[in-house]
Write a structure and sequence with these properties.
The protein is built from 7 helices and 9 strands. By secondary structure, it is α/β, with parallel strands linked by helices.
């Protein structure tokens, strides 16, 4: 059986992919598709389609501390293009692009990162709304994998009659590093699971982030709680 994993960059897509391949004999990843794209036409009826979401505040922290990711603004259209390792992943249109609020950071590798908290968090919200409303997708939250991946793996096995590779469930972080990701550590996991605190994001940006997210919408429509200054 084929499977596809969808999600924004830095949301755990590679971790989930490798977790599935490590534990099931009869699953094969569909390679030629855009896992970060906003295109529902990529969903297949004879395929296990999974979307993974990350806490919006923690996702934003992941984006801002990752040297290989940047958000680039194209001059020919009012939009936000997602660029990772110089690969461009589509664009999202905005009525007003808050270009004046961007700031740049250039690294020794020659890559310049363009940060804009308003536009980044709007990407997350648009992505979450679009994919969470699609009934043909299996929805998964990154924190659920970190807390106990066995619950998800058991459900997938039972729902789709999949065959385990081993007697016990195996966890990727115990056997190998995850592609395009930092090595797992207990500190890293604890920081992510502590959803009441920010570790890498300046609290002064919370007003902008919460305005875009709409904390009332966030509380009513997602499993995530707002963080305030």
């Amino acid at each position: 059986m084929k499977f596809k994993v969808f999600g924004l960059p830095r949301s755990g897509t590679n971790y989930l992919k490798e977790l599935l391949l490590l534990n099931f004999e009869d699953l094969n990843i569909e390679e030629k598709y855009g896992k970060h794209r906003f295109n529902c036409d990529q969903l297949e009826h004879d395929c296990l389609n999974i979307v993974i979401f990350k806490n919006p505040y923690k996702w934003l922290e992941s984006i801002l501390i990752t040297n290989t990711s940047r958000y680039d603004y194209s001059e020919d259209s009012i939009g936000l293009n997602l660029v990772i390792n110089d690969v461009r992943y589509g664009a999202i249109k905005y009525d007003t692009l808050k270009r004046e609020e961007c700031y740049a950071k250039k690294y020794k590798t020659g890559i310049t990162l363009y940060y804009n908290h308003h536009n980044l968090i709007e990407v997350w919200k648009k992505y979450y709304i679009k994919w969470s409303e699609n009934e043909s997708l299996i929805k998964l939250h990154y924190k659920d994998l970190l807390q106990d991946e066995k619950i998800f793996l058991t459900k997938i096995q039972n729902d789709f009659n999949l065959k385990k590779k081993n007697k016990y469930w195996l966890n990727v972080r115990n056997f190998s590093s995850v592609e395009n990701s930092e090595n797992f550590s207990s500190l890293k996991i604890d920081e992510y699971l502590d959803e009441s605190k920010l570790y890498y994001l300046d609290y002064k940006y919370l007003d902008v982030i919460n305005e875009v997210l709409d904390v009332e919408w966030l509380s009513e429509n997602t499993p995530y709680s707002p963080i305030y200054r």
